[in-house]
Amino acid sequence: MIKADDAAPTGWAAVGRGTNGGAGAPAESRYEVGTLSELKAALANNGKPTAPKIVYIKGTVDGNQAPDGRILGEQDYAPGYDIAKYVSCFGPDGKVWSDQTFEYCKKQRQLRQTGSNNMKRQIEVSIPSNTTVVGLGPDAGFVGANIVILSATNVVLRNLSVEAPVDYFTTWSPDDGNGAWNARFDAVSSVTSDHLWIDHVRLSDGRFPDSEAPRGPNGKPANRHDGLLDLKDGTDYVTISNSRLSNHDKTMLLGSGDEHVDKDGGKLRVSYIGNYFENLQQRAPRVRFGQVHVVNNYFTGSTDDPHYPLVSEAQGGSSYFLGAGYESRIFSEHNAFDFTGPGADPSIMVSSYNGHRFSDTGSWYNGQSADLNAIAKASFEGNRAEAIAEAEAAGTAAPDWTGWDFTTDVGWNPADIYSYKAFSTPQAVRNHALRFTGPGVLTVKQ
What we know:
This protein has an 18-stranded mixed beta sheet that branches. Strands 5-8-12-14 form a four-stranded parallel beta sheet. A four-stranded parallel beta sheet has the order 17-20-23-26. By secondary structure, the protein is of the alpha/beta class. Helices cover 17% and strands 30% of the residues.
């Protein structure tokens, strides 16, 4: 049983003043909601949005629900938009857009932008400071909403099911690698916020896997989902615990870019504790700058999953679980990785994206002890050699990170900051993930 004013657990969110959301909210600032309109009114809190408040979610809040109760779709946001026509305007190779490719191209370009902006205004839900949002049952939560914690402090999300919003107006970017889709809307994101606790939450693509989306210029389905749980622009002091994230591509991104040291340097302190990460094709998480603790999480995936196959770099793909990005300092311990299917290999566990500081202790691959440090080192050194060779061929200076050496000294230890006791066997990590993560485990007392 939990009460909505329970204190935050061990982890970064408990550091300093801690995170208790709307604990202590008076009776008039405690709300039960079941629609988007009711939710937005509750968050406004009678003109005092940053005062302590607790919002109980009963049933499913649909981000596409208009005030009159209708569920809006693509044609409501942009009548006449057609993604197939939009794609055709990039030409036969998908490389160059022209308003003159077909007579409808200019109109489709305008409709895509208009629809995207209309959809943003509809589905975005901004969570203010000093707020607890908690689900009243195992299926309470959100579908189709873009939940943003923007410039807020002291926010708690618990016992919620979140289905990622479908971006009907996702953008084809021909210059992104060999061409890529870039959706606009995260399921949950934090921007310049601090002291956040996300606990017993389930996040996934739910009913709308990208494998069933319309095809793009490269013949592959459009990516209609962006991040599942992204932390950006100086977000700090976050604990994500006992949650279940599944069936998604671009899962959890920490930091907005290698160049954003002014925003992210010294911040992005995040704990991932006791979560279940299932069929996540990348970014579980991918870390820039952050000082991140990853402990007792259970990672599963397969090379032949019908909707979310994981294909490691060693197999010619781009899937990975932990991503060590620029200036990241990941402290990993006692995580269990189960990766199966034809060609499955342990390199899937960690990849370096210019990150040279990574430490793991006691993790397992398919039930056996695993050397994640060696995998991270090999990935970093391979990328470094490639970057140096590319710079020499172009006659340009190599990036600064190519002058660094890989090390397992990340410069910090979570045990020096907060108290915790980790499971010491893969069986215990699996059991916790399978039985005690996501919504419905806890009984909520109003």
